[in-house]
Specification:
The chain has 361 residues and is of the alpha+beta class. It has 6 helices and 19 strands. Helices cover 19% and strands 33% of the residues. The strands form 4 sheets. An 8-stranded antiparallel β-sheet has the order 12-18-17-16-15-14-13-19. A 4-stranded antiparallel β-sheet has the order 2-3-4-9, with no helix packed on it. The protein has a 4-stranded antiparallel β-sheet with strand order 5-6-7-8, with no helix packed on it. Bound molecules: FE2/S2 (inorganic) cluster and fe (ii) ion.
Length: 361
C-alpha cells in the first residue's frame, strides 16, 4: 500500500551530523507560514504554527515528492498543519500525516495514517535565530544543546547580512578564519592600510567543540575599533559545525557579530552574519554604512573563495603553513575528533591545546 525510500544523505559529503545548524532568522518565518531552505544538501521546510512555535520538516511530500513549502500552513482541528499543494495531504509539525483528502470514509478508517510521515528535525529558537538539528539518526534526540552565545538570550537582532559562496563549507570556514589573507583581500582604507601590516601574537585556547582567540585589546591598527575608545576587549570564538562569534566588549556593553557558515550543498555555502549590540555609540553610525562595510568585507572573501574554485577544480595538493594556518588545522582536527566521537561512542576530545600563534598581517 505504501512504500518509503531511504532518505539518508551520502556519508562522504564532508558535512558533520549530530550538530545544530543555522536554519533561518526567526522573524523571516511568520506565524502560520513556512519557508524553504536547502541545508546539508537536504530540502528543509522551516515553519511556524499559528501560535508561534517554530518547526522543521523534510520539505518533500511523501506522496509524490513536491516541496511541501509550496503549499500552506492551515489550521485544522485546532492544530497547525502543512497542506501539500498537489493532493492536499496534511502533515503535523512532528511530520506525521494528519489527513489524505482523497480517501473515502471507510478507506480512511482502515488506514493507519501515522505510518506515513516526512522527517521532522529538532529546532531551537534563540537570539532571534532558528537552529535546526541534523542527526545522523533521524529519530534520535539531540546529543548536544543548541548553540550558546555570551549575550542575553532576548538580545535584539540589529542587522543581518547574507552571502553565498560557491564552495564546499570547509573552504568557506578556513577562508574566513585565516589571518594571512587580510592584507591582500581586505585592503579598504577604513579597515587597515598596507602600511599597518606587522607581526602579531595572539593567544588561543580550547572552548566547547572549538577554540577561542582569547580576550585581548583589539589591534590599534584598526580604525573602526578606535571609534569606541576606552575599555575594550575582543574575543573570537569558533565552534563546530561552522559558527564564529566575534565579541567586542566595551565595559558592560557589547557589539557582537555572529557568523553562521552553513552548507547549502556540496558546492554552495550560505554565510549569515547577525549583528547584536547595546552600545549607544552605535546609533551615531548610519546602519547603511555598517551594512555596506560588512557586505564589502564578506564580498571580498566570497570573491576570493569563488576564484579559488577555478584552481581547486584541478584537485591540487594543498598546504597548511605555520602559525597562520593553525586555525585551519584545528578545524580539520575538530571535525575528525567529532566524527570519531559520533561513530565510536568514545568521549569527544577537543584536539586544541592552549597556544600563542604568531604571524604577520
Ligand atoms: S504530492 Fe503531496 S499530496 Fe500528492
Ligand atoms: Fe576575510
Amino acid at each position: 500500500m505504501t512504500e518509503t525510500a531511504p532518505t539518508t544523505a551520502p556519508a562522504d559529503d564532508g558535512f558533520l551530523r549530530d550538530l545544530w545548524y543555522f536554519g533561518a532568522i526567526g522573524r523571516d518565518v511568520k506565524p502560520g507560514k513556512a519557508i524553504h531552505r536547502e541545508i546539508l544538501g537536504e530540502p528543509v521546510l522551516i515553519g511556524r504554527t499559528h501560535e508561534g512555535k517554530a518547526f522543521a520538516l523534510r520539505d518533500i511530500c511523501p506522496h509524490r515528492g513536491i516541496l511541501l513549502s509550496t503549499g500552506q500552513v492551515v489550521k485544522r482541528d485546532g492544530e497547525s498543519q502543512v497542506e501539500c499543494p498537489y493532493h492536499g495531504w496534511r502533515f503535523r509539525p512532528d511530520g506525521g500525516c494528519a489527513a489524505i483528502p482523497s480517501l473515502t470514509a471507510d478507506q480512511a478508517a482502515a488506514m493507519d495514517l501515522s505510518k506515513i510521515r516526512t522527517r521532522s528535525y529538532p529546532v531551537a529558537e534563540r537570539y532571534g535565530m532558528i537552529f535546526v538539528y541534523f542527526g545522523r539518526d533521524p529519530e534520535a534526540e539531540p546529543c548536544v544543546p543548541p548553540p550558546v552565545l555570551d549575550i542575553p538570550e532576548n538580545s535584539k537582532i540589529r542587522m543581518v547580512e547574507t552571502d553565498i559562496f560557491n564552495c564546499h563549507v570547509d573552504h568557506a570556514v578556513i577562508g574566513l578564519m585565516d589571518p594571512a589573507h587580510i592584507p591582500y583581500i581586505h585592503r579598504q582604507w577604513w579597515w587597515r592600510s598596507a602600511k599597518s601590516v606587522h607581526e602579531k601574537a595572539k593567544n588561543f585556547g580550547p572552548v566547547e567543540r572549538g577554540f577561542s582567540m582569547l580576550p585581548h585589546k583589539p589591534s590599534a591598527n584598526s580604525y573602526v575599533y578606535r571609534l569606541f575608545g576606552g575599555q575594550r576587549q575582543t574575543e573570537i570564538r569558533f565552534e563546530l559545525p561552522g559558527l564564529r562569534t566575534e565579541y567586542l566588549r566595551l565595559g558592560e556593553r557589547h557589539v557582537t557579530g555572529f557568523t553562521a557558515v552553513t552548507p547549502t550543498n556540496a558546492n554552495k555555502t550560505t554565510i549569515t552574519i547577525v549583528m547584536y549590540w547595546d552600545v549607544p555609540a552605535m546609533a551615531v553610525i548610519p546602519k547603511a554604512l555598517i551594512s555596506k562595510g560588512i557586505r564589502t568585507f564578506v564580498g571580498q572573501d566570497r570573491d576570493a573563495v569563488n576564484a579559488q574554485q577555478k584552481g581547486l577544480a584541478y584537485n591540487p595538493q594543498l598546504m597548511l603553513i605555520h602559525d597562520a594556518d593553525v586555525q585551519a588545522k584545528w578545524y580539520y582536527k575538530l571535525k575528525t575528533a567529532w566524527e570519531k566521537h559520533r561513530t565510536t561512542g568514545e568521549p569527544f576530545r577537543n584536539p586544541v591545546k592552549p597556544a600563542t600563534l604568531r604571524w604577520t598581517s
